[in-house]
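ok trying again, last paste got cut off:
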Amino acid sequence: MRILIATDAWRPQVNGVVHTLEATAQAAEAQGAKVAFLTPQGFPSVALPSYPGLRVALPGTGEIARRIAAIRPDAIHIATEGPIGHLVRRDCLMNRRAFTTSLHTRFADYLAARWPVPQRWTWAWLRWFHNAGGGTMVSTASLAGELRAHGFRTVLRWPRGVDARLFHPDRAADQGVKRPVFLNVGRLAVEKNVEAFLALDLPGTKLVVGDGPARADLARRFPDAVFLGTRRGADLAAIYASADVFVFPSRTDTFGLVLLEALASGVPVAGFPVAATNDVVGTAPVAALDEDLRAASMRALAIPRARCRQYAETATWEASARCFLDNLVRTGHHAAEPHPAASRRQGQEPSMPTGGTC
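nice, full thing came through this time. structure:
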């Protein structure tokens, strides 16, 4: 199967969407698929004032059509709702190509955190965008339920994984700071709620890995924290494994790949009892979840590291890719299957998958 994944999020961005797409593609190719990406590379772009360092591609409809035709995909997956996602969606509908989508971000919450945009408007736009395809893939059961409640027709599970070879307790290296070490890794933006972590009265050291529009302000307001900037690969893995607790203050993430990376490194998690943390750790004794984030952080210190590692080893990118590929087959990526938009024009509705590990 030749798969085309269209995404507005791509390198040099460092985020969960890019990492998920790359890891899934690598694992899918190991299972016999051929994956190509349609990304912002090669298109003109403009800067985003509210996100320093990030740019938005400005593709043309003709070039989008030419790139799709050159790849000749058997399946098309649209990962983001940006300009590339919109034009690929448009091309698919015009040419009656089956496609799937995925939702990686709680846009309604993120937009509301920045601007006074009514959430019902955002949900209406997302519903219009995603319901045109054969199915919308999401990482967790709670997000699947939320989308169904907002009128999404076909919601498919696409769980996430972790590279347990890279993120491993054995990679620990002295960071030269006072212990215990409380770590946060992620984008430094208002929706990540990093301030809630930095404002805690905790012993030892707070380490922050990542960059984003809020970094300068947070570093100025919390000079006792150590801001390490963006780290990757073995360097990032060593920082994870050297921490005592991973503190996850976000209330709006859809999943949180960093939680699995921390657990694979043998680091227990502290966070709020919200959807992302509940979906990743559930009732497993590898995290302390509490509305009192300081209390959760201190309790997490007592969680055995070996238990965290054992839990993370159950989440693999190979299993994630299998679900992704199964979802493509399930939504009819072959010539005999009518496009879902055509079915709806005939008064039919796509079926809702139930059961299964995906």
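cool. The first helix runs from residue 16 to 30. Residues 334-356 have pLDDT under 50 and may be disordered.
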